[in-house]
Amino acid sequence: MFSLRSTRSVGAGDFGDLEALVELVERAGMNVVQILPVNDTTVHGMWWDSYPYSSVSVFALHPLYLRVQPLIEEAAAAAGPERAGVFDALRRETERARRALDLKEVDYEATVRVKLSIARRCLKEPNVREAFLESEAFRVFLDEQSSWLRPYAVFGALRELFGTAEHWRWGALSSENAAETVRRLSSPDPSGASSSVYDAVVLRYYVQFHLDAQLRSASASAASRGVVLKGDLPIGVDKASVDTWMHPELFRMRASTGAPPDAFDANGQNWGFPTYNWDVMSEDGYMWWRRRMTHLERYFSAMRVDHVLGFFRIWELPAHARLGRMGRFRPSVPIRRHELDERGLWFVDRLCDPYVTGAELRRVFGDRDGEAGTERGQDPAAPPYVGVGKGHPREGGGQDAGDGVGIAQHRERPAPGTACGAVRSP
C-alpha cells in the first residue's frame, strides 16, 4: 500500500490510491491485486512500527493508509460556513505537507504524525465531533465492530497515557482488569466531565471509521470491476498488542517465535512474537481465528496466510533468548500427502515444487533474467518487497521456504531505513 503514490497521497499510498490501482489493473487485463498487511502496527511510535507483520491489533487498520482530504471536506460541512477560513487554511497545510513528504522513501513517522494531526484538528472543530458520534453510520459501525474497536481505542489511549504499549507495565490497568477498563473508558463519563483519555478514544473511533469506509470503497470498486482484492494475514501479533492485553490466555507470553539456525543465519532468528496456546484456543473452536478471518472478509475476497506452516510447526524460543539457537518446534505436527488430497487440495505439487525456475526466467527474459528474479533489478541483494529499502537479507529457504503463496517473509527487527522504505524523522 505505501508504494501506491498519487497526486493526492500524503507521504504514503492510501486506500484511495488502491481504487486507482484497481482501475489500472482492469484496464491492463489483469484480475488480482495482492497487498501486504494493512493492520495497525503502532507499538513504539517510531519508524520501527513500519514493519507490517507485527500487528498491534488484528482488526484495526493502520492510520498510515488514511486519505485525509475527505475528512477535511466532511468536517467543513459539519462545522458550517463560519469556519470556512479555518478549513481553507487546513487544506493549504495539507497540500504543503503532501509536497514536503513527496520523497523517494516514506518518512513513516512524519506521515503518521501529519495524518493524525489533521484528523485531530478536524474533530476539534465546532459540531464535528457531535455530528460524527451521533451519525447513524458511526452508530452502526460501533455496534457491529464494538468487540474489537472499543478495546483498540482504549489501548491506544492508555499507550499514550503511559508512554508504552507494554501493558504489563500499566499496573491496575494491565491484562487482569482489561475488560473492566475497556467498559469504563470506552464511553463518555456519565457526569459529563471532559476526559483526555476519552478524547483519545474518540479520535481512534473517528480514524478507524474512515479507514474502514475507504478500504470498503476500494473493495467494492474491485468487485465491480471483476478484480480480486487479496489480503495478507500475518501469523503473529506483537507481544505488546491489544490482543495479548485482552486475551493473554491465548498466548504463551514467556515464549517467542523464530526460525532455527540454517544456511541463511547461523544464529537462527528471533522474531519476538509470542506463540499461541493452541489448547486454550481449541476450547471455543478457535473463535479468535474465526473472528479474525471473518473480519478480513469485510475487505478481501482472497487471503494469503503469512507463514501458514506455523499452524503445524513453528520454532519456539524461551522469552530470555536473544538469538534463534535455543529453540524447539512447537507445535510439530506432520502433514501427510493423503490428508491434503482428502481435503481437495489438488495443487500440492504446485506449492511444493519450484514453479518459476531460473531456466524459465532465462527463457522469458533472456539476458535480463537476473533483473527479473530480484524484483529490484539494480540491486540483487534487495529484499523481495517492491519499493522497500535495504535491511531484510533473508529471501526464503530454510524454515520459511514454502510458508505462503506470494513473497518470502522476514522477521528481523528492521534496521534504519527498512520496512516501507521508511526513514527516520528529523
Characterization of the model:
A four-stranded antiparallel sheet has the order 5-4-8-9, with no helix packed on it. With 426 residues, the chain is α/β, with parallel strands linked by helices. The protein is built from 15 helices and nine strands.
Shape: globular
Distance between the termini: 24 Å
Q: Could you tell me the number of beta strands?
A: 9
Q: Please give the count of helices.
A: 15
Helix content: 40-55%
Which strand order spans the largest sheet, edge to edge or round the barrel?
5-4-8-9
Element string (H = helix, E = strand): HEHHHHHHHEHEEEEHHEEEHHHH
Task: Report the structural category.
Answer: alpha/beta
Features:
426 residues; 15 helices; 3-stranded parallel beta sheet; 4-stranded antiparallel beta sheet; alpha/beta; disordered C terminus
What's the arrangement of secondary structure elements?
Layout: H1 15-27, E1 32-34, H2 69-79, H3 84-100, H4 108-124, H5 128-134, H6 136-162, H7 178-185, H8 196-224, E2 228-233, H9 242-246, E3 251-252, E4 255-259, E5 269-270, E6 275-276, H10 278-282, H11 287-296, E7 302-305, E8 313-318, E9 328-332, H12 337-342, H13 348-352, H14 358-365, H15 369-374
Parallel strand pairs: 1-2, 2-7
Antiparallel strand pairs: 3-6, 4-5, 4-8, 8-9
